[in-house]
Amino acid sequence: MKTTQNHDSGAPIYRPLKVYAFDPSQGRNIGNYMTVNVKYEKLQPGPIGEHLMVIDYDASNRCYYLPVDPDDPAILLRGGLDPSESNPQFHQQMAYAVASETIKRFEFALGRPIKWGFRGGVRNDPNRRRLRIFPHAMQEANAYYSRDLRALVFGYFRASETDAGSNLPGQTVFTCLSHDIIVHETTHALIDGQRDFFTEPTGFDTPAFHEAFADIIALFQHFSFKEALLETIQRTGGRIYKSDIEPETQPANRGPTIQAELSTGNPMVGLAKQFGEAMGMRAALRSALGTPPNSNDLDKLFEPHSRGSILVAAVFDAFFTVYLRRTRDLMRIARAGGAMTGPGELHPDLANRLAAEAAKTASHFVNMCIRALDYCPPVDILFGDFLRAMITADCDLVPDDDLGYRAALIEAFRLRGVRPEYVVSYSEESLRWCGPMELYGKDTRCEGLIFDLVKGTSPEQMKENARVLSNFGKNNARWLGLSTKEPVQAHSFHPVHRVGPDGQLKIEIVAELMQQRKLALDPKDKSSPDFTFRGGSTLVLDRDGHARYAIQKSLESLERLARQREYHLQLSANLGVAPYSGRPPEAQPMSFNLVHRGY
User: Which helix or strand (DSSP H or E) is residue 29 part of?
Assistant: First the structure.
């Protein structure tokens, strides 16, 4: 057990808990049995902590499973329960540990505590602000986040009887034992907490972005698994982007005769392998590199996962490109010195260096992606908006891009046909968001905001900040991309602090100003239902309240209105592929349950 202590309180800093690095189908191979050090907190049986509450109720069998107590001495001294497919208490432990690790990653990148998107509940209920986790919620090949349930819901199901891959035909597969699936669903909840209106589908990119972003976070998590990364580097000769890993020994001309002569899938680039194989897909559920460059897939892929694969591929294209550039000198030295003779024969020191570079590069990319959430518009997210958000967020924190992270991202998005709106070129300068000073020569400052990074902002102070921000938006609507015809509502307010590579602390304020307008879905049809057309601006303010960026989705954009109307009408005409319940458009947030089932 890790014994590092907090000298102020005497409490441990981390709690070690055992999990599967991938899923049970990997057995003990490639470091699949691993320990994660989650942030220490006092836990109730469940586990129940500050942000999470595991409730192991099996609705199909109408029973509760005994909750695990991580502070039980017999469990505590072992660093948590050992991985087990048959022990429900380990399932509870793994769901809590992986979700906690994902929360920690978001808080580090965002520079602030996370919050959840759900509201309501009984005021004196101590669990009203906790995300609930149901490890065995249903007998179904599905898992999803539900804002209405305030929960992550995990199913379990029987593997295919005819083509189960590495699973036993007909065996029970638990989605709560897939590291990838837990991270994916937790990420949905975390996005919803940072951007409430991203669950409102306003175009094909919106649900696709949600699915892609959750896959990106889950896939990048693989590169923090040191043992698995080292073995993959050895087996691929450092080319970790390959979809298949060469066999341990080359087969004779007649073909493979033993398992060591069989090639295998690369676990670093595959997502949810056990789930995909159990469904009869003969492969992982999805891949980091599913869409090649120079494709026109954006014009023909509209299902959220398929369209999202374009965004995933663009981000990982950039990641692998930067990794190759960072390790090119090591590979040249290794070849010249004879330390690299082929796959599986790398010198251990070289493999360790390559693994360190891959992990460091992956960490930087995942932080870029998460930080970009604060630089996205408050509604109607497009892939091009996300590219601009990543470029701007990274420029702010790391002005000197000497290793070409941003250049690689721009090229990868360009190759896949992502065309950001309102830019004149793919140059870094053009893609960065602009503020009122750059656009209009107007220095706008919001005075009177109250925030305390140490003690936190009280509910009374938050109400006052909302009033100040609403008035600021109303008085500066022209400069902030807001309509002068509609009221302005301050929807969120986040003080953030981040440390750049130069060691300097950067303090900013991120706020969302929202507006909305009721309009007819089809203006040519007198009986057409109304829908809520939303607009607004994400403000990034410096610590003195000056508006550095105003990232806009204007209510006055006729082009955006026409695009959104067309999207809703198209879905209404084909409800079989839309994740909706037939309610009016303004009341139709995404149902991740239906999206994950392919509707």
Answer: none
- 3-class DSSP state of 470: helix
pLDDT the model gives residue 493: 85
What is the C-alpha separation between 454 and 236, in angstroms, rounded?
A: 47
Integer Cα distance of 413 and 212 in angstroms? 14
Cβ atoms of 313 and 416 closer than 8 Å: yes
Closest CA to 206 of 588, 559, 575: 588
If phi > 0 it is left, if psi is from -120 to 50 it is alpha, else beta; for residue 62 that is: left
HEC string of 528-563?
CCEEEEEEEEEEEEECCCEEEEEEEECCCCHHHHHH
Q: Dihedral through CA 259, CA 261, CA 265, CA 266, nearest 10?
A: 110
- Tell me whether strands 52-54 and 131-139 are parallel, antiparallel or unpaired: parallel
> What DSSP state is assigned to residue 14?
E
Half-sphere CA count of 40, side-chain side, radius 13 A: 17
Closest CA to 205 of 56, 383, 361: 383
Q: How far apart are CA 383 and CA 277, in angstroms?
A: 30
pLDDT, one tens digit per residue, over 88-124 is 999 999 999 999 999 999 999 998 889 998 876 677 7
What are the Cα distances from residue 389, in Å, to 77, 420, 428, 481?
45, 11, 11, 17
Q: Which of 129-138, 240-249, 263-272, 525-534 has the highest mean pLDDT?
A: 129-138
Which tokens belong to 34? 């691993």
Nearest to 31 by CA among 282, 193, 233: 233
Would you tell me the crossing angle of helices 405-415 and 348-371 to the nearest 10 degrees? 70
- pLDDT for residue 155 is more than 90: yes
As a dihedral over the C-alpha atoms of residue 112, residue 118, residue 119, residue 125, rounded to 10 degrees, the angle is: -90
